[in-house]
Amino acid sequence: MKKFKIENRIVSNSMWMIAERILQMCISLVVNAMVNRYLGPDNNGLITYCASYVNMCTAFATLGLEYIVIKELVSNPEAEGKIIGTSLVMRIVSSIACIVAIQGVVAVSRDFQAVYMTVTLLQSVSLVFKSAELIDFWFQSKLNSKQVAIAKGITYFAVAGWRIFGLATARSVEYFAFATTLDALLVALILLYMYQKAGGGSLSFDIHWVKRLLSQSCHFILASMITVLYSEMDKLMLGNMLGDYDVGIYNGAYGVAMMWVFVPNAIMNSYRPAIVEGYTTKTNYLERVRTLYSIMIWLGIFVGIGMMLFSRPLIWLLCGPAYAGSAACLCILIWSTLFSHLSVARNTWMVCENLQRYSEIFPIWGVATNFVLNYLLIPRMGAMGASVATLMTQVVVTLIAPLFYKRVRPSVKHMTDAFFARDLRDRLKGVIGKRDENRA
Question: What is the pTM of this model?
Answer without folding.
Answer: 0.71
